[in-house]
Amino acid sequence: MLNRYPLWKYLLILVVLLVGLVYSLPNLFPEDPAVQISSDRGELSFSQSQQQSLEQALAEADIDVKTVEQEPNSLLIRLNDAEDQIPARDLIAQQLGDDYVVALNLAESTPEWLSSLAASPMTLGLDLRGGVHFLLEVDMEAAVNQRLEVNASAMRETLREERIRYRNTEIDGRTISLDFMNAEDRDAAETLIRREFPDFQYQDVERERGASLAMTLTDASVDEIQDYAINQNLTTLRNRVNELGVAEPLVQRQGPDRIVVELPGVQDTAAAKRIVGATANLEFRLEARTDTPSNETEALSFRNEPGRTADLMRDVIITGDSVSSASRGFDENGRPQVNINLDGTGGTLMNRATRTNIGRNMAVVFIEHKTRDRTVMEDGEQVTVRDPYTERGIISLATIQSALGNSFRITGLESPTEAGELALLLRSGSLAAPIYFAQERTIGPSLGADNIERGMLSVQIGLLLVVLFMLIRYKVFGVIANIALALNLTLLVAAMSMLGATLTLPGIAGIVLTLGMAVDANVLIFERIREELRTGLSVQQAIHAGYERAFSSIVDANITTLLVALILFSIGTGPVKGFAVTLSLGILTSMFTALLVTRAMVNLIYGGKPVKKLWI
């Protein structure tokens, strides 16, 4: 029989629509403006009396508090009005002092029954939700110095293996200098080193006593090191941001030595800086023997015990770059630790070093690059100068009981939070060069609210115009098309929520375009039905022919548009991707509603009934 669906198809359409309705509902519950209190070290110690004192201070300042929630490492104060966020933050910061970090936040308000179904609202982009914007500067000179340090260590190891004696190693600018007892040792060393280190220009230096070899990096090698540094830093920063769980972050290069990082929805700038900007790495070194020459040792203090020091070998066994995975854990006494797995090369080097040094102490050195800002006068104006410096501290010093392999653990950490952050940094990889915050900016949610309001207004105006046109042009069939259009918008929102897609301002533009394209298929079908009626076909035959014969045109038009959207998504970045996501999902949902949902409604209204005239 014409224009009748089997029962299973009606049920399938109904299930899809119900699922879409349920998973679009969380978007009706907007996030609460909130203030988050945390410690600058990641752990929070907050008493009940302090909490009550804060609530009283906020009440006296006429700031309406919705709820106060104690979380594992923070205190979340939900507010009823977004305008109260900044005054509340300033008041709380004044009350607590410098021991706490007070940041703006947006807290989800999805009901528990929806959360239990894994339903959550759409993720909003930086332009809608707010967040943080960082401009990071890569220290290119430090990148070259780090490479020279690694090369110098490798050269010393090579000379020791070949039993070629040397006196001293110095690094000055781009040059490594090695001192020898005589010219014969220098020439033998040069022949050996040239073969393994072709990126240097070699020069013999004669001295009154002995001889020296000066090795200077070529310009091409320096350019290669600096390009590698910024690309490696890009990769590492992307890994760190992914570990933070930020949806649709932006991490991209800007100019020769700068990187832009944008984190939508992140209001806690201190926490974001602590993870994104951390330049920490690890070095594993042996403790020096009593008879080791002083030029091959370095005295370092313990990170958690400033008064305690140990003499370590300058040569590094491995660094954090050799870590393939790391996770936080606890030892048998409940103290925090980091479980380490090394890659193949790192495991081999660790096994080789520990196998021949059983009974000797091995240290884990934590290295962090920082800066100090100072103000100087230049040409009568105050100028801020950044002085970089490096802090090295021993995390643990333990005796090697047996040969270590690819897996071991690091102990001696102060807190589970410190262990978790160290594991995160090791998992995501170390930075090839230190980075400094050249600029940081917090984009408040008020700007996002304004963008959302204008975007929603554009969607409403577009939807209203389309609805009016369809009603005037197609009457009863226009009502069917408008119902399908509303269901299409619901399914689109549900799909973006379920897939975790991020809605941006260009994405809203994609939704507006989708609304116009969604009824395009209905227009093709309804006009085709009109043509079939003019040729003298019966109502049932005209409806059937209209849907069947317009099908190929609809599919062809939407497939080509979908291909363009996929290309935009694959090669585009930022706003272009946001537009492509909503456009591609909108095409899929509009085809479903135009070809199946409207057909099901038409079948239920007209299918199998003696209809003499269509209101179309």
UniProtKB/TrEMBL annotation:
Gene3D superfamilies from the UniProt entry: 3.30.1360.200, 3.30.70.260, 3.30.70.3400, Multidrug efflux transporter AcrB transmembrane domain
Membrane-spanning parts: 455-472, 479-501, 507-529, 550-571, 583-606
Every Protein export membrane protein SecD/SecF C-terminal domain range: 438-603
Keywords: Cell membrane, Membrane, Protein transport, Translocation, Transmembrane, Transmembrane helix, Transport
GO MF assignments: protein-transporting ATPase activity
Any one annotated GO CC term: plasma membrane
Keyword Coiled coil listed: no
Domain SecDF P1 head subdomain: 300-433
Annotated localization: Cell membrane
Biological role: Part of the Sec protein translocase complex. Interacts with the SecYEG preprotein conducting channel. SecDF uses the proton motive force (PMF) to complete protein translocation after the ATP-dependent function of SecA.
Subunit record text: Forms a complex with SecF. Part of the essential Sec protein translocation apparatus which comprises SecA, SecYEG and auxiliary proteins SecDF-YajC and YidC.
Name of the protein this chain belongs to: Protein translocase subunit SecD
UniProt source species: Halomonas sp. RT37
